[in-house]
Amino acid sequence: MLNIPSKFDDLFAPYLGLRLSAFDNAKLVVAVLAQHQYKYQAAEIMLITKGAVQSTPRYAVKWLGLTNNQVDIVNGCADNCRDMDYCWIDCGKINQYEVGLILIDPTDAQGNNIVVVNAITLPVMTMQQIGFMCVESAHFDHC
Question: Would you list the DSSP string of the chain?
């Protein structure tokens, strides 16, 4: 059975310390999920926190196709993902250039909700291309 927070950490462990642009994060998430044959949907979203819409849209990837036999019932996101068959990975505000990945729960106790503004199509990059993208980003950050 799949424990979503644990599986997220396993899949994205090499990248969790990186701070890429939100768009590069979205490309990274799509590449990793595609490589592991998970279904996904990339989107521009608005995050609604405690009834207040955040003004800047975010890039996010909806990790789709999770079935009940893939999800362990644990605390946190996995409880809600079990009922909805998906979870969201927040890639950052669309204008952020140095941000990390976050697994978010669209119905958490803090009252966060997600509204899809636009579905977006991203290229599915190879892991070699992702490696080059990360090296390029690291070089840019240190120049």
Answer: -B-HHHHHHHHHGGGTT--B-HHHHHHHHHHHHHHTT-EEEEEEEEEEETTEE-SS-EEEEEEE---GGGB---STHHHHHHHHT-EEEEEEETT-SSB--EEE-TT-TT--EEEEEEEE------HHHHHHHHHHHHHHHH-
